[in-house]
Amino acid sequence: MLAISSELPISNCQLIKFAVISEEEARKTILEAVRPLPARKLWISKSLDFFAAEDHFARLPLPNFDNSAMDGYTVVASSCRKGERLRVTGDQPAGPDRELRVSSGEAVRIFTGAPMPAGADAVVMQEDVTPDGDEIVINTDVEAGEFIRRRGCDLAEGQRILAKGERIRAATTALLASQGFTEVTVGGEVKAAILSTGDELVIPGGKLEPGQIYESNSALLNGLLKRCGAVVDSVEHCRDEPELLIEAIKRGTRNDVLIISGGVSVGEHDFVKDALRDLGAQIDIWRVAIKPGKPFLFGKIGECAVFGLPGNPVSAFVTFLQFVRPAILKMMGATDLDLPQVPAKLTVDLTNDSDRAHYIRGKLEHGRFTPVGRQESHALFGLSQSNALLRLALGQSLKAGEIVEVQIWD
Ligand code: AMP
Ligand code: MG
């Protein structure tokens, strides 16, 4: 851990000490400070991408009864050699069980998903049969068990079908529905507010004066928040004015999470820390040994988790993924808080000679990772062309051709 202690003057003339802490420490502090939101029941159709708040178990085996895997004829395999002629005694479509029986020398017409008649132990595909009046001729060898889906072969009754903390995906909702569930118990929904700060910023659609730029972090954060399942409740922009900032922060803290972009660095116009302190916030973190994103801030006002992200777009992006995303996932009840990691072959040599871990933006394509764009915290275009992050530890050197683990977020 880097522990460069610094003294931060604060408005009531006290001095407060903040150390630059490691990413691990920052993440630990944040995850200790946030709690899962209360669980609730949701209709299955509304549950996609939420996280299960309890284990769910199978009420029924899958399949629930022996049934046919094909459209064809169900037979007694031992009485059924190639060339055999069988009498068709009935038919069983998918649907209510007609409680038919098959004996040697007989066949019952059957369809995919239909329950197996008593006495039958194989299904012959209709493509392997020649119909002839109320008889069929078998054109293939038949083995017992063929084309029957046995009760419970996929899933046993009582087996766990959804673990607490697991994300609900489309196939999960289908599995729950197959069990007759109408609702599922999921974790809470995180409501988030976005607050961008900066006198230089103009909301897209407005007119740019010399020296001004369009505000783009709200769009970035809105997308990232939605990707990790949060609801964006308010998006606001505030000038670098302490009084306005205090009011805007107050409004933002009505949510579970407030994300402030810009104004957390050391400049004379960076008022976020002071505003938070004036509001009685508990500030747990200011500055983390991470590149880009060192001025990252985390604290709490009441139950609202407040994240101060540096204004440079790539810094905001990286610190969101490393610190905000896991916190939101924990609040939603997820078990796995990490970004997915995949192995990739590095295409260039890389060295981290900075004083912090460096997150390199790159393109992962066909298992190969190549840095893209300028590796600077303002370089939004490069970021927009990337789809993976490679973490280079302090002092780490890597050679082209090495296999590395990269984080993906798309
Ligand atoms: P700050 O963290 O406020 O010192 O801002 C650092 C850099 O990020 C400056 O170049 C800002 O103009 C830029 N920046 C801050 N906020 C935003 C934003 N919301 N959208 C685009 N750029 C921003
Ligand atoms: Mg600013």
Inertia-based shape: elongated
What is the spatial order of strands in the main beta sheet? 9-6-8-7-11-10
Quaternary state reads single chain
Mean pLDDT, to the nearest integer, reads: 95
- Low-confidence stretches are 1-15
In short:
The chain is an alpha+beta fold. Helix content is 18%, strand content 32%. The strands form nine sheets. It has a six-stranded mixed β-sheet with strand order 9-6-8-7-11-10, with no helix packed on it. A six-stranded mixed β-sheet has the order 18-15-19-23-22-20, with helices on both faces.
Description:
This protein is α+β, with helices and mostly antiparallel strands. The chain has helices at 23-33, 170-178, 217-227, 242-252, 272-278, 313-331, 380-385; strands at 5-9, 15-19, 40-43, 56-57, 67-68, 72-75, 85-92, 106-110, 122-125, 129-132, 135-138, 148-149, 160-162, 183-186, 191-197, 201-202, 213-214, 231-238, 257-261, 282-286, 290-291, 297-301, 304-309, 341-346, 350-351, 357-365, 368-371, 388-392, 397-398, 403-408. A six-stranded mixed beta sheet has the order 9-6-8-7-11-10, with no helix packed on it. Strands 18-15-19-23-22-20 form a six-stranded mixed beta sheet, sandwiched between helices. Strands 24-27-26-28-30 form a five-stranded mixed barrel. Helix 4 (242-252) crosses helix 5 (272-278). The chain is elongated, with a radius of gyration of 31 Å. Mean pLDDT is 95; it is low at 1-15. The structure holds adenosine monophosphate (AMP) and magnesium ion. Adenosine monophosphate binds at residues 196, 198, 200-201, 213, 215-217, 261-263, 265, 267, 310-313.
